[in-house]
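Let's practice the habit of predicting before peeking. Look at the sequence and jot down your guess about where helices and strands might fall. Then scroll down.
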Amino acid sequence: MTGLRAAFASTLAATLLMATPVVAQTREAPKYGGSLEIGTVYVTISALSWDSADFNWKHNHDTGQFYEQLFAADLSKARRNGGTQAFVLDAHLPSEAIRGELAESWEWKQNPLRVEIKLRKGIMFPEKAGVMKAREFVAEDVVFSYDRLDKSPKKILGYFDHVEKVEATDRHTVVFTLKHPFAEWDYRFGWGYMSGIMPKEVVDAGAANWRNATGTGPFQLTDFVSGNSNTYTRNPAYWDKEKIGDKEYQIPFVDKVVYRTIKDEATFVTALRTGKLDILEAIRWQNVESLKKSAPQLKWNRWLAQSGTFLAMRVDQDGPFKDVRVRRALNMAVNKAEIVKEYYSGNAELFAYPQHPDYGGYFEPLDKMPASVRELFAYDPARAKKLLAEAGYPKGFSFKVQVCSCNPDHMDLLPLVAAYLEQVGVKLEIQPMEYGAFLSAMTSRTMTAGYFMNNGHTNPTTTIRKSFVTGQTWNPSGWSDPAYDAKMEAAYREPDEAKREAMLRDLTREILDKAPYIWLPTPYVYSAWWPWVKNYGGELRAGAVRPGPIYARIWVDQDLKKKMGF
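Done guessing? Here is the structure:
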C-alpha cells in the first residue's frame, strides 16, 4: 500500500490491515443450537430506532446482528485467545485489532486522496417476505447507505465533511475520495455507530419498522417488544466462519439471541442468579459479592466504565454557570475522593474522563496535569465558598438538574452530590426522567441548567469533539469556543499519531481546566456469565457499541447447562 498509507504510518485510518482469520485458541469443539439470553450493557434501555438515518447512538447495538459493516473487530486478538485486546471499549478499535467484514481488502491511493475497497463476493441479503427477494450484496449498497446517512436531516454536524464522494467503480469495488487526511475515516463509516449496510429495499419498505429489517449478518430480527425484548434468529445462509484449532465452523452457533430489557436492577440481577439470563454484561459493584456467594459458578470480567459521569452546567444561557469561578467552585465542593472510597468502596477511578486510561498516549494521568486541573479533584469547600463569593454568590444559589431514572447508579449518586453542594449554599432540585424524555431534552436543547449524565468516551478524538465542539448533539453544557473548535479540527487532520496524541492531551487539559462539568469518578463495572457460555471471555464490543460478531461466535453447552440444574 502506498500514498496515504505511507503518510499515515501508525495512524488509525492508515493502519487498517488486510483481513485476518478469526482463530479461537480452544480445543473444545463447538456445539450448535439453543438460545442465548442476554442482559446487555444497556439492559434497562429498549431499542430507540431501527433506522440508521435517525443517527441514534444505540442503533448499532440493536441492528449489528443483521446489518454488517465494512470493518469490524478482529476477535482473534481477544485476550482469551492469547491476544492483547479486551474488546470492551465502546467505540475504539486499535489499528492492530481491525479486520475486514464486508470488505475483503483495501488500498490507499493519492491524487486524488482515496481508498479503494474490494468487497467480498457472494454475500447475500436473504429473502424477506414483503420487502425483498434474496440477492447479492454489492458496491451500490455501500454507496446507497452512505449517501442516505449523509443526506439525513438528523446527521451529526460535520460528520462526513471530510469525504468528497463515494462511488461504486464496479460491482464489488467502492471508492471513498477524501478532501484531506482524517484520523477517524474508518470509524465514521467503516465500523461506526451508523455504519451498517442497509439495502434500498428496506428503506423503500420503511426502515424504521423493525418488521422490514434484513441484512447480511449472522442473525435476523424476528421479534421486538418495546420495553421487553429483541429476538434475533440464526441466518442459515450466513457467509462467515470461525476457525477453532485446525477446523473452520460455520457461524452462528446458537439458533437464537434474545436481548432482555429489564428496567429494575434487582430483577435483572435475580435473572442472572437463577439462570434466566446466560450473560449479564453490566453489574454494579454493589451486587458482585452477593452474586459470587449465591452463584459461585459464574465467570467474571471487571472493566472500567466506558463513559464518564458528570453534572453538566449549561454555559449557553444566562446564569451563574457563565462564570468559570462558579464552575470551579462546584467542583471543589464535591469530595470526589470520598465518593471513590465510601460510595464506590474503591471500585472507581478518581480521574478517567474525558480521556480513558485505556487510550494509551492520549491519556494523561491526574498527577501529570497542571495544578489548576488537579485542584478541581481535591475537596476544598472553603475555597469553593470564596470563589462563589467572588463571583457574586456569597449565599449560593439553586438550580434544577435532570437525571435519567434508567441509571440506578445516578439515582443514588446525584443526591450525594447535592448534599456536598448544599454545604456551600448551592441547592439542587432533582428531576428524574425516563430515558426517552431525558435524551430528548438534550437533543432539543430544552434541558435544565444542570444535566446529570454519563457520556461514552467513544474514542480519543470523538470524546472531545462530541462533548465540547460548538453545535454538537452530545454537548450538554453548550460549550462553544471557536479557537477550541479550530484546534480540534487540526487534530483530526494531523496524520502523525504521536503529534495527534500531544494535541489531544492539550485539548483535554484545557477543557478540564475550564470545567463545564462537575467531573466525577468513573466506576468499575462487572460482567458475568454462566460456564455453559462457551467461546467467550467478557468481550462487549466488536465495533461501535456493536456486539453482534461476538454473539455469533458463542455457543451454549446445553448438556452442561442441564447438568448444572438449569
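How did you do? Residues 147 and 166 are 8 Å apart (CA to CA).
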